[in-house]
Amino acid sequence: MSSEAQQHEAHDSLGRRPARPVRMLDVARAADVSRATVSLVMTNSPLVADHTREKVLKAAQELGYVYNRNAASFRTQRSYIIGLVVSDLRNPFFGEIAATVQQFLSEQGYFVVVVNTLDNLEQQEHALTRLLESRADGVLLVPCPGSDVARIREVNELMPVVLLTRELDAPEVSYVGSMDYDGGAAAARHLIEVHECRRLGFFGNTAPGSAGEKRFNGFRDTVEAAGGTLEPIWQGNHIELTSQSYRAFRTLLETSAPPEGLVCNSDNVAYGALRALRDSGFMQISDCRVIGFDDVEQSALWSPSLTSVSVSRADLGVSAAQTVLAAIRGELKQPVVLRHQSQLQVRESCGCAMAGEIA
Amino acid sequence: MSSEAQQHEAHDSLGRRPARPVRMLDVARAADVSRATVSLVMTNSPLVADHTREKVLKAAQELGYVYNRNAASFRTQRSYIIGLVVSDLRNPFFGEIAATVQQFLSEQGYFVVVVNTLDNLEQQEHALTRLLESRADGVLLVPCPGSDVARIREVNELMPVVLLTRELDAPEVSYVGSMDYDGGAAAARHLIEVHECRRLGFFGNTAPGSAGEKRFNGFRDTVEAAGGTLEPIWQGNHIELTSQSYRAFRTLLETSAPPEGLVCNSDNVAYGALRALRDSGFMQISDCRVIGFDDVEQSALWSPSLTSVSVSRADLGVSAAQTVLAAIRGELKQPVVLRHQSQLQVRESCGCAMAGEIA
DNA sequence: TTGTATGCGTTATCAG
DNA sequence: CTGATAACGCATACAA
User: Fold this and answer.
1) pLDDT at B5 over 80
2) Which nucleotides of chain C are near protein (any atom < 7 Å from a CB)?
3) Pairing mode, if any, of strands A307-310 and A343-345?
4) Which of strand D's nucleotides are less than 7 A from any protein C-beta?
5) How confident is the model at residue B265 (pLDDT cuts 50, 70, 90)?
6) pTM of the predicted structure, to 2 decimals
7) Mean pLDDT value of segment A105-129
8) What is residue A227's three-state secondary structure?
9) Is there a contact between A114 and B111 if contact means CB atoms under 8 Å apart?
10) Is B161 left (phi over 0), alpha (psi -120 to 50) or beta?
């Protein structure tokens, strides 16, 4: 008995960091309550009197107690962690989604961890496994092209998955995205009907399963239905970054005249195409009318301001977050499939607003 | 004995998700080894024979075993998690840093969790606490303006902290950033010496402790030393986003002529100013020569391409990651302070490269 | 190279 | 509201 007491005195008195970290039991003793009570306080249970709660909190503060969430998660098999696995944080589109999701879910007591896969399958598998191992409560996933659908399905059995932005052939997995086909169609319609373009191109990644593929499909079907010409030269696949887009487009322009109308799979890609046009000497907007996708923050202020198919990041983020929450709470009887409307933001780059020159 | 056996048979046969999840013991039995061996396999210990390792892995696979990292972390008091707490993921600058850091640290076996504070003190405290509670191994932190230095210091006692981008008055906390003062000075020098600007302005957030403050100081000192005029009208504080910058600058231009040279605290802010100039009728670059900060990916392709003080995100990210790793491994005898060199990327917006017009 | 025993800090249960 | 007691699944000596 005396030896126990001595041990407790020992680490309280001298060393900066006591060898044995303070735990609930220590707090309980200091606050003169039971361990159970401390636990109730830490989990914000309503079962504890305000007066007691404050006493406990004060003791914890004074002792420098740090709640051990690993122990708790271990015990409960829950973590209050939700993963947000995206393809590329360097794209402001996903940055905005991350900000929205994080804000929403942290208000609900969850901790959102953002992971970047750079569209690398290994990274994605690594992230998913890690989340599983940490008993994450759910995950919002922008699946890499080439994802193993069976694996995603399997993960979804273990923890609720909500696919974001990119649909997969897995009916039992929830999906939140936008009406990409319609967006592509609307862009094509605008170029054809308002600007009377005949020769059209689609630029950017159209990998199978990607949003780009569906955008392209809507675009292509509309062009064909209107009797326009779809020029396949401009199908710059695997292009995501502005700099890639610029280089690829400049190269293409060396041998071909630009199409009358161009739809790009993202604003980032459109930026590169626009600048390539200018640097190749195509200074008139009517030389090549350009429409982007995403309508990110900078697009309205680009020169020329970019006409873009807008999908609301806030709406996307919030409804994905709500979906995963519902799934976690077991309120989902069947998978949710949500396609948000997209809307054409008409600006200068297609020739609608004032400007006549690109540069 | 027979009842135990029955229980084990029971959940293996029917239900989709067995009530009792499979653990190491089950794997051990299936692979006909001991629990300890399975543990060694899961932690990649070299102590186990290849042949045994494969046998165990195969059994784990077949049983659908998911390693319980919470239990492990609980046991070891380590998590192999490193936090990356940034102010705003919507800024591509931080997106690029996140990508770099994540790539580097995941190669070292760590899991990087990115958290967005939106420069909100509460969010920051929440994130830090959460990381502490989860026994994160370390954290890379872009501290909010107004951060409680004592608290950061305290956190640093509990888990290694590396300040990123924004310095704090806490000598015992490591810091990785760039030479902001010099960058501001270089931008000013360029405008004054090369372009003979006399009336100069600095636009963007210069909150105390921020990088902007130091950039501004370097800028101001240089302008004063050269006998130039620093026009305080342009000090748009609290401005971070492109759209904010645009609106603020347009308003200012209603009542004042632009300065001959303008340095902006980020490229994002410069974009807004540039477009505001154009929309207010200042079409010549010589009306107002603009220099940004960060040199993010889009800047080279903006119209006009943006002259910018470049700080390498890759260098910043990697050395911050290396620093926190060293601290975790106990290889740091004293805090690291690293200021990366910044470099002026000269392009059109200051009037150096070809273009003569802004739009 | 493998097996055995012990404890990590918390939550859940249940009777007071 | 409190107090006692049993898991939770794993890592790590230590022994073999």
Assistant:
1) no
2) 1-5, 7-14
3) antiparallel
4) 1-5, 7-13
5) very high
6) 0.86
7) 92
8) coil
9) no
10) beta
- Contact of B80 with chain A, judged by CB distance below 8 Å, is answered with no
Q: Quick one: closest CA in A to B279, which residue?
A: A301
Mean pLDDT of A195-222: 92
B2 pLDDT tier (thresholds 50, 70, 90): very low
Chain B closest CA to A222's CA: distance in Å? 31
DSSP string, A99-167: HHHHHHHHHTT-EEEEEE-TT-HHHHHHHHHHHHHTT-SEEEE-PPTT--HHHHHHHHHHS-EEEESS-
Give the C-alpha separation, B50 to B40, whole Å.
Answer: 12
Q: Are B305 and B349 in contact (CB under 8 A)?
A: yes
Q: Is A268 on the interface with B (CB under 8 A)?
A: yes
Please report, as a single letter, which amino acid is at residue A132.
L
Q: CA–C1' distance B128–D1 (Å)?
A: 32
Q: How far apart are CA A217 and CA A185, in angstroms?
A: 8
Q: Does A61 touch chain B (CB under 8 A)?
A: no
Q: Which pLDDT value is given to residue B354?
A: 60
Contact criterion met (CB < 8 Å) for A303 and B135? no
Residue of B nearest to A90 (CA): B95
Q: How long is the CA B28 to C1' C3 vector, in angstroms?
A: 11
| Residue where the block lists tokens 């993010």 | B296
The answer to whether some atom of strand D lies closer than 7 Å to the beta carbon of B78 is no
What is the rounded distance in angstroms from the CA atom of residue A176 to the CA atom of residue A174?
7
Confidence band (pLDDT; 50, 70, 90) for A354?
low
Please give the Cα distance from A89 to A114 (Å, whole number). Answer: 9
Å between CA of B58 and C1' of D13: 28
How many Å lie between the alpha carbon of B66 and the closest alpha carbon of chain A? 6
Q: What is the mean pLDDT of chain A?
A: 88
Above 50 in pLDDT, residue B357?
no
At A203 the three-state DSSP class reads strand
Find out whether the peptide bond into A335 is cis, omega within 30 degrees of 0.
Answer: no
For B86, the closest chain A residue by CA position comes to A99
pLDDT band of residue A52 (cuts 50, 70, 90) is: confident
In Å, what is the CA distance from A65 to each residue of A7, B1, B146, B232? 18, 44, 25, 48
pLDDT in tens, B69-103: 999 999 888 899 999 999 988 888 899 899 999 99
The torsion of the CA quartet A139, A143, A148, A150, rounded to 10 degrees, works out to 40
In angstroms, what separates the C-alpha of A91 from chain B's closest C-alpha?
7
Tokens of A44: 């914000």
Strand bridging mode A261-264 / A307-310: unpaired
Tell me whether B87 touches chain A (CB under 8 Å): no
What is the pLDDT confidence band of residue A20, given thresholds at 50, 70 and 90?
low
Quote the mean pLDDT of chain B. Answer: 88
Q: Is the pLDDT of residue B230 over 90?
A: yes
Q: Which residues touch strand C (CB under 7 A)?
A: A 20-21, 23-25, 35-36, 39, 42-43, 67-68, 71-72, 74-76; B 33-37, 40, 47-49, 52, 74-75
